[in-house]
Write a structure and sequence with these properties.
The complex is a heterodimer of chains A (about 250) and B (about 280).
Chain A lengths: L1 H7 L3 E10 L2 E11 L4 E5 L6 H8 L7 E6 L2 E2 L7 H5 L2 E4 L11 H11 L5 H14 L15 H13 L5 E5 L7 H16 L3 E5 L3 H7 L2 E6 L2 E6 L1 H6 L4 H10 L1
Helix pairs in contact in A: 4-5, 4-6, 5-6, 6-7
Chain B lengths: L9 H5 L9 H25 L6 H42 L3 H15 L3 H11 L3 E4 L3 E4 L2 H27 L2 H9 L4 H31 L11 H11 L7 H33 L1
Antiparallel strand pairs in B: 1-2
Helix pairs in contact in B: 2-10, 3-4, 3-6, 3-8, 3-9, 3-10, 4-6, 5-6, 6-8, 7-8, 8-10, 9-10
The chains are: A alpha/beta (about 250), B mainly alpha (about 280).
């Protein structure tokens, strides 16, 4: 019995998650399940709570009630060592947030060495592979300020992957980029998803969402209004709010 | 914390002591003006009393003694700055602590010392700190006045460095904390390995400004009998017969000494300020 439920259990599971800033309800009872190897996209109008939702999954934002489980860890447990959770969950931000005083290679190597206490040579080999994977060979010794936004974002992805996470969170990672650099970042994420990395994306790139996601969630005012597989979601939306949103963005 | 004066950003603190358009050329002109007035003051005095050794000759004779005093000013400024830097960083970190038992006293000390006249702090330290202390294993150790003065000068500066550090840490974008936390760094690691290295560069111009202010304040110690550059200058004039015609050349010479020392620091500070303003 336990082994059976284990294999079928979702790697990330949210149940009735609520959060409010004062009287303003940001998350109004969100429930969703993500299984290992899945890529899901969360879409919706600005201010609908997408970013808040994704930041709750690695404990950057607290929640008022409900339950978030990641790989068996209860995120809402006040006694939780958040660092244990964050070792398993990588996160990439809209503003890249690379460490500006460190080179590309140092940015990627820092956390495995300082947090996981891994062997420097091993980490360096892995970091160089990851930098090659995000197509930035030759930029190992560049500083973030010398790179384009898209290149910085790919370094940020490599930096997260260096921790060998179980789940990757992407919070509007192309929203701040120049249009010509968006493609490289999306290609990197597409490769990751196709290799079986569990990905949770908040995005405004509908075409990309449709292509990459196994499942799409539409949020509005802190609620999941509608969800489904990409084809159904885009071609046959049920809820009027979804229809209105899609008519505006497509 | 409600007083807006306490919320000054480090960039603003840096502007409390700033001359417009500092250049080497302007510096040379000012120095030349100083030299000419010294010459003029001397000649004028000579005409008045031609029989005695000229004031310039007297000054020349006493220069080694005055420079000896100036060395003590430099020593006090280095010592005070070293104390202020180390203590100021820790006090600033104390202000940022999430524990109130640490952050509240740190803020209190910072604001008290930042908002007290330096001379009052100097007098208090001079009269409240004993002239000798008992160290276990060493017996009684004398505390010379210049050491007490050094400690006194470090107090207002350390409070300002504490405030500069707090401002610099708060000026680092919050995204740096977000991404570092997401990578499972501890708060201490984030502060020391990610946030502070970015702060130190931003703090350098303001830090240098406070050093210049501190060095210029050290002659206050002479009021309390420390044989610094001003103390020695006064002693020299006394020894040379307390002639009124000595006052101008001797004090102009002391001004020139400080000018030669501080002015390059000011230019350098300005350069760094401009450089980092562009880099950020």
């Amino acid at each position: 019995m336990p082994s059976q439920t284990e294999t079928r259990a979702p790697i990330v599971s949210l149940r009735d998650v609520r959060q409010s800033f004062g009287a303003f309800e940001v998350l109004n009872g969100i429930s969703l399940d993500i299984h290992k190897g899945e890529a899901i996209c969360i879409v919706g109008p600005s201010g609908s709570g997408k970013s808040t939702l994704i930041r709750c999954i690695n404990g950057l934002n607290p929640i008022n009630s409900g339950s978030i489980k990641v790989d068996g860890i209860e995120v809402n447990d006040p006694k939780l060592d958040k660092r244990a959770l964050r070792r398993r969950v990588g996160m990439v931000f809209q503003q890249y947030n690379l460490f500006p005083h460190k080179t590309v290679l140092q940015n990627v190597m820092m956390a495995p060495i300082r947090v996981l206490k891994e062997d420097r040579r091993e980490v360096e080999a892995r970091a160089r592979d990851l930098i090659a994977k995000v197509k930035l060979q030759g930029k190992e010794n560049a500083y973030p300020g010398e790179l384009s936004g898209g290149q910085q974002q790919r370094v940020a992805i490599a930096r997260s992957l260096a921790m060998r996470p179980e789940v990757m969170l992407f919070d509007e990672v192309t929203a701040a980029l120049d249009p010509e650099t968006v493609k490289g970042v999306l290609n990197t994420i597409r490769d990751l998803a196709s290799e079986g990395m569990t990905c949770i994306l908040v995005t405004h790139e509908m075409g990309f969402a449709r292509e990459v996601a196994d499942h799409i969630y539409f949020t509005d005012r802190g609620l999941i209004v509608e969800h489904g597989e990409p084809q159904d979601f885009f071609e046959n939306p049920q809820d009027p709010r979804t229809r209105e949103f899609l008519s505006q963005v497509l | 914390m409600s007083n807006p004066a306490f919320r000054l950003k480090p960039q603003l603190c840096a502007s409390t002591w700033r001359m417009p358009n500092l250049t080497w050329k302007a510096g040379l002109i000012l120095l030349a003006a100083l030299a000419i007035s010294l010459q003029w003051a001397t000649l004028f005095a000579q005409e008045a009393v031609p029989a005695r050794a000229s004031a310039l000759e007297v000054l020349w004779q006493w220069i080694p003694y005055i420079l000896e005093g100036f060395a003590l000013n430099l020593g006090m400024s280095f010592g005070a700055m070293a104390i202020a830097t180390v203590a100021g960083i820790f006090l600033g970190l104390g202000q940022l602590s999430r524990l109130r038992v640490i952050s509240w006293p740190s803020r209190f000390v910072t604001h008290i010392l930042r908002n007290s006249p330096w001379l009052v702090i100097l007098f208090m330290v001079m009269y409240l700190v004993p002239f000798e202390i008992r160290l276990p294993g060493f017996g009684k150790v004398g505390l010379p006045d210049w050491i007490k003065a050094t400690f006194a000068f470090s107090l207002p500066v350390l409070a300002n460095i504490s405030e500069i550090l707090r401002g610099a840490v708060n000026s680092i974008p919050k995204g740096q904390w977000d991404s570092a936390e997401s990578l499972a760094f501890t708060r201490r690691q984030i502060l020391w390995e990610i946030i502070l290295p970015q702060c130190f560069k931003r703090m350098i111009p303001a830090w240098m400004n406070w050093y210049a202010l501190l060095a210029l304040a050290t002659p206050m110690a002479s009021i309390l009998g420390v044989r610094d550059v001003v103390g020695n200058t006064q002693a020299a004039m006394e020894a040379a017969g307390a002639r009124p015609d000595l006052l101008a050349p001797f004090y102009l010479f002391v001004m020139g000494l400080f000018f030669l020392y501080i002015y390059p620091i000011s230019i350098w500070t300005r350069k760094l300020e401009r450089k980092y303003a562009i880099a950020n």
